[in-house]
Amino acid sequence: MGDLRNLFVVRQFCSRHCDPSGADPVMSSLSASKPGLRLLQRAVFGLDALLRRGACVVEFTHDSHCIFRIQIVRLQQDILLLDGTLARANERVINLHFWNEHLPLMLDAGPSVAWARRMSRCVEQSLQALAHYLTARLDLEDISLVRANITFSSPERRDRLTRVCRRFGFEEVGDPATMTTLRRLHLLGENILTSLMSRALHASAPRGDALHRDRTQLFMSRRRLIEYYGCEIGLDCAETARGSRVG
Q1: Phi/psi of residue 90, each to 5°?
Q2: What is the pTM of this model?
Q3: 15: alpha, beta or left, given left = phi > 0 and alpha = psi -120 to 50?
Q4: For a designed S-S bond to 33, which of 38, 124, 126, 177 qualifies (C-beta 3.0 to 4.6 A apart)?
Q5: Is residue 49 a part of any domain in this protein?
Q6: Are 56 and 205 in contact (CB under 8 A)?
Q7: Into how many domains does the chain fold?
Q8: In 3-state terms, what secondary structure has residue 240?
């Protein structure tokens, strides 16, 4: 559920990209699964939906090409970005979460050039949608940052993921949060859910796919988001924004 921590799961998807029929790829896959796997899928995605509702993670557009949901939370630290944007602790920030059902699906062989291009287009379209959404929502004018929390199982993957995210306008900021016992348990729970989701979507996923994962937080300023992505005609988010409330 959380932020972009299901980025690992993207590598486990297999067979569809934004089907124009509008069929739900996750739910559609249930009928083709073995009974045991089908039960796991329903349990995992049911739990994921429950956690999203509890954490107020919501859709901001109805467009099937958008791969992000959003959550509004409070910053735990002061953040200063390279473009001069300064946000203080306790100010509101938008967290990005993957909309798993809309992610480009991947063959068992792994990511291809075509898949990478589709994923890149989806990210760009989703950020365009978010830029238009924020522009249309006067009640969100105080929000100056967008955050993506990503997970990785090795330093090499961390470097690759952060390089990719920089191309879209994000920059890395260290997380000084104290690693309390409660926080460790919370992160362990997130890792377990990500592993279960991976197994539910891809039966041949490695069973040792890591209950231990490290994290890094990436930020983009509202100014940069609108500068980079606000000039395009986005999805239907502007109309949706006027009729919805978040946070």
Answers
A1: 80, -5
A2: 0.72
A3: left
A4: 38
A5: yes
A6: no
A7: 1
A8: helix
pLDDT tier at 215 (50, 70, 90 boundaries)?
confident
Per the structure, the complete domain to which residue 47 belongs is given by: 7-242
d(CA 21, CA 23): 5
Contact 118, 102 (CB under 8 A): no
DSSP secondary structure letter of residue 204: T
How far are the Cα atoms of 67, 82, 120, 138, 210 from residue 162, in angstroms, in the given order? 18, 16, 14, 31, 20
**Phi-psi region at 69: left, alpha or beta (left = phi > 0; alpha = psi -120 to 50):** beta
- Tokens representing 224 are 């940069």
SS3 145: strand
pLDDT, tens digit (0-9, with 9 covering 90-100), for 112-144? 788 888 989 999 999 999 999 999 999 999 999
**18-34: per-residue pLDDT in tens?**
343 444 444 444 444 56
Tell how far CA 235 is from the center of its chain.
Answer: 18
Placement of tokens 């500068």 in the chain: 227
Token pair in block for residue 64? 């099937």
Beta bridge partners of 92: 74
Q: Indicate whether 2 belongs to any domain.
A: no
Q: Which two tokens stand for residue 102?
A: 């809309």
Quote the CA–CA distance of 93 and 140 in Å, as a whole number: 10
Would residue 1 count as lying in a domain?
A: no
Specify if 73 maps to a domain.
yes
**Residue for token digits 């809309």?**
102
Vertex 181 angle, CA 175 and 183, to 5°: 40
